[in-house]
């Protein structure tokens, strides 16, 4: 659509008139509040209740979505809601919480699970192990005063995590999640 000079002038005058109507400028939001407002809250789904490799995969994808949310907001409850006595999960949540508790923020670092590949079938105790090829964005951690505390570059190779889950009380819980870059991917 082509804009004529007259139409452009009318729009500019209208914008100036509206700006002069005494509307107060919005208060500046803190970076954490702004990121929290922009973050998409991950949603659970029915597949997570499926007592199969498909259910474990859905839960693992949800976990990484919840980590993404936590990195942007500092809110770790969702990621921990699908972890049961998972030391690695609890340590990751504590690290994220500590940054935000001190008034800092995290930009980037979002993990992206490329796939969740089960190693075998669900065992008699409801357990299943899967490997997860993962890519993570570059990450910068800022202190409250805006200084950079930590920087992690994007790794084009990615890595592999091994997840162990257990199906109990109608839902999957991740009980272990560790980086295993040398793990073999199933065919």
Automatic annotation (TrEMBL):
Origin superkingdom: Bacteria
Biased segments, Low complexity type: 29-39
Signal peptide: 1-19
Keywords, ordered alphabetically: Signal
Domain DUF6318: 40-176
PROSITE patterns according to UniProt: PROKAR_LIPOPROTEIN
Region (Disordered): 29-52
Basic and acidic residues bias (residue ranges): 40-52
Descriptive protein name: DUF6318 family protein
Species of origin: Arthrobacter halodurans
């Amino acid at each position: 659509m082509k804009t004529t000079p007259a139409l452009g002038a009318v729009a500019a005058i209208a914008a100036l008139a509206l700006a002069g109507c005494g509307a107060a400028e919005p208060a500046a939001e803190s970076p954490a509040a702004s990121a929290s407002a922009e973050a998409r809250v991950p949603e659970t789904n029915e597949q997570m209740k499926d007592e199969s490799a498909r259910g474990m995969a859905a839960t693992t994808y949800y976990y990484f979505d919840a980590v993404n949310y936590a990195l942007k907001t500092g809110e770790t409850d969702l990621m921990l809601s699908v972890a049961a006595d998972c030391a690695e999960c609890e340590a990751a949540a504590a690290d994220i919480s500590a940054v935000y508790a001190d008034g800092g923020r995290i930009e980037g670092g979002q993990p992206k699970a490329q796939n969740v590949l089960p190693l075998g079938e669900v065992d008699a105790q409801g357990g299943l192990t899967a490997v997860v090829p993962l890519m993570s964005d570059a990450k910068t951690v800022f202190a409250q005063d805006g200084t950079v505390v930590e920087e992690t570059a994007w790794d084009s190779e990615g890595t592999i995590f091994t997840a162990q889950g257990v199906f109990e009380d109608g839902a999957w819980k991740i009980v272990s999640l560790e980086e295993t870059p040398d793990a073999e991917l199933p065919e």
